[in-house]
Amino acid sequence: MRLLVTGGCGFIGTNFILLMKERHPDWKIFNLDKLTYAGNRKNLLKLEQDENSGYTFLHGDIGDREFVTAVLHDHKIDAIVNFAAESHVDRSINDPAPFLSTNIMGTQNLMECARQAGTEKFVHVSTDEVYGSLGPDEPAFSEKNPLQPNSPYSASKAGADLMARAYFETYGFPVSITRCSNNYGPYQFPEKLIPLMFLKATAGEKLPVYGDGSNIRDWIYVDDHCTGVELTLLKGRPGQVYNFGGAAEKTNLELIREMLHLLNRDESLISYVKDRPGHDKRYAMDFKLAEKELGFTPKTSFRQGIGKTIEWYTANREWLEDVRSGAYREFMENWYGERK
User: Fold this and answer.
1) Own/partner pairs for 35-40, CB < 8 Å, 24+ apart?
2) Which of 211, 218, 252, 266 could form a disulfide with 275 if both were Cys (CB 3.0 to 4.6 A apart)?
3) What CATH number labels 2-181+221-245+283-300?
4) pLDDT value, residue 339
5) How far from the centroid of its chain's Cα atoms is residue 320's Cα?
6) Is the pTM above the cut of 0.85?
7) Per-domain residue ranges for the chain?
8) What are the backbone dihedrals phi and psi of residue 319, each rounded to the nearest 5 degrees, phi first?
């Protein structure tokens, strides 16, 4: 297979490419990434430097029609997995425009170029946040739940999902959509909860917790999510949405306390800060359809996954410091400084 992965230098994209090269060493993988603040080309540098790896990095924007068209034709792409997205809720609240540009218009451009090129399979990677928020006793989101996004970020992803549906219904375009709960694992940019809490806890700094910390998320280890995307690529039905979850619901406060325990840090580091606008109360994913049609099931328990994640960050201080020295430091100053 000749596979184009967009946004492959980000957290989930990086893990997906590494896992696919391990499982499918004969695949030719082309990674198209714009390298915005959370994209790190160094994540996959070993593959890039290996002439026999079957991996190629392409620097570009999914919204650039001429460039994307050339990539699809020049490299004879068979299939596309679209991870490229602006993905942080707080940033979308501050400035929605880049989210609309990349997540909706960029996705539409990518699909149109793929449609014109006759691409055989397209997997669009979305999020559970498009469903909105659940009450404490409501059943988990299924693929039949209506889209009710509550932040500019989730609204932009819902817009992209609807455009993907329109491309299937109107043009018969072979696109499948995946929606997943909160990911965690290696290479995650430190604006996200788990790596942010790790960095602050190990430095003995205060850990900012929105509101009272009672917001609930379903956590999935990144390799389990990547397996779901792989199964969708190989076996998913065009036009179908597939939910993926980790069967690991936790309040933010429970998660942080568990991390502090594993890091041998005191809970006195927890600091409650003003809640963000439109903060969804609970996410949970019903993935029975993916179990039935794709054979998906999460393999990594939260206890196993958080242990492996902390071990990776502990062993990769150089990676963390490299991130902290650039975009991470700017992010911290701009976003969390005002909440101290």
Assistant:
1) 35/9, 35/59, 36/86, 37/189, 37/327, 37/330, 37/331, 38/10, 38/11, 38/87, 38/88, 38/189, 38/191, 38/327, 39/7, 39/9, 39/10, 40/9, 40/10, 40/14, 40/187, 40/189, 40/323
2) 211
3) 3.40.50.720
4) 42
5) 19
6) yes
7) 2-181+221-245+283-300
8) -65, -45
Query: How much is the average pLDDT of 234-262?
Result: 97
What token pair was written down for 181? 């709960």
Give me the active site residues, please: 128-129, 153
- What CA–CA distance (Å, rounded) separates 4 from 229? 13
pLDDT > 70 in the chain, percent: 95
Report helix, strand or coil for 182.
strand
Residue 327 carries which DSSP code? I
With a CB cutoff of 8 Å and minimum separation 6, the contacts of 144 are: none
Can you tell me the distance from the alpha carbon of 85 to that of 332, in angstroms, rounded to the nearest whole number?
Answer: 20
Give the model confidence (pLDDT) of 86-136 as tens digits.
988 888 999 999 999 999 999 999 999 999 999 999 999 999 999 999 998
